[in-house]
Amino acid sequence: MPRPVAADSLDAARRARELAALAGGETVDVLVVGGGIVGAWAALDAATRGLSVALVERGDLAQGTSRWSSKLAHGGLRYLAHGDIGVAWESARERAILIDVSAPHLIRPLPFVIPLGGQVDRVAGGKLEGGLHLGDALRAAAGTSRRRLPSARRVSAEEALRLAPGLTDRGLRGALLHWDAQIEDDARLVLAVARTAAAHGARILTYVEATALRAGTAAVEDAIGGESGEIRARHVINATGVWAGELSGGAVRLRPSKGSHLLLPAAALGEPRAAINAPLPDSSSRFVFAVPRSDGLVMVGITDAPFGGPIPDVPGVDPDEEAFLLASIGRVLERTPTPADVVGRFAGLRPLLASGERDADDATATSDLSRRHAVIEHDGILTVVGGKLTTARRMAQDALDHVTPGASCVTHRIRLAGADRPPGDLTAQLRFAVEHELALTVEDLLDRRTRLGLVPERRAAALDAARAALDAAPAGSAA
Description:
It is a single chain. The chain has three domains: 1-71 and 185-254 and 354-420, 3-Layer(bba) Sandwich (FAD/NAD(P)-binding domain), CATH 3.50.50.60; 109-183 and 257-350, D-Amino Acid Oxidase, Chain A, domain 2, CATH 3.30.9.10; 425-479. Helix content is 33%, strand content 23%. It has 14 helices and 18 strands. Strands 3, 4, 5, 6, 11, 12, 13, 14, 15 and 16 form a ten-stranded mixed beta sheet that branches. Strands 1, 2, 7, 8, 9, 10, 17 and 18 form an eight-stranded mixed beta sheet that branches. Helix 2 (37-48) crosses helix 11, helix 4 crosses helix 5 (122-142) and helix 12 (426-436) crosses helix 14.
């Protein structure tokens, strides 16, 4: 007797059935190209407006930029420093939806400390404190309670050292303590949105590459079956992030920005209980942070540098970027971490929208480019670019408002799939991922479903278990 399958369950057999129907000539209302966070939200938004929808992604879900984020659903304090109240307000509002409605199982409150002393004099500290209180006002206006994210306040040097024992006490006058939201796993957030879209009827088709987009059709290639064909759709949404310019035929100009991160054992930074924000000496609004994670590691980031040339599938971290991050966080620590402490590295590319020809070609810093998003209509295609992970739901809403201006968006009221977690041990997680989360390869399992691949040694240790999970899957569940 066949096993019961939940509506949000994704596996190879479902993928094959749905791809065959589309290859046979069936037309959908909306075709979403791109399986990152924006594409997944667009698929869910379209499906919950009563539209038939298919999503195609040339690799796995969250294979691109969406798995290389800073894993924060942040309230936009940095944008307040630039006077961009609109982006900060949108960030605070979308953070509230993620925390309280969409994904409370994937997001947790996280304290941050900004050490006062050294790089931050009394005048600069006062300005930072004022910005934090303005952020608190946006938090309250967005509906996030102080019980969820407490108000910012000054703390003594002693309390700062209890929260972050690795801080240097030389010249430490205290710290500013504020709270933001940490996403446990950005790739799993994408998966949760995609599974929820599937539960509402969306067809989620990974390893299907759109090679050309035209009004009403997309030429596609199935990387698993090897066939080529086309998918017909009344509306096509290009949500491919930093690759959006390539599929737009030059109609969309981007200035990608590279953000690099390092992973270190928590012991190398004194086992911090709070994230540490280290201000950069040449900026009043930029920090390098050290964020403790639930797996015994601390993530140090982030760079913000213009990136030129062909867009790689997996950006690397340059030695100069690593040295910059270690030196920057080391300014506020008793002991500066070294490259020998680093156990993992990753980088992502932000799809920032160039505001004109000068921006598209200028190699100067991208840190001042706006994080606003845009929906651009060209040649019968809608391309959505810019923005960031926190505001991806709103980006998708704006794109679907172009498609169905008379239909209301309801995604701000929907709880995502996965709140009832699969069993906790690794073997069960891997089996669940194959049978219900469309994991088709070892890379899907280790690099995006469990994120063990962030640390090469952990990836190697789990390799046999991942292969066994694929081999043990019921017939039709794995490719």
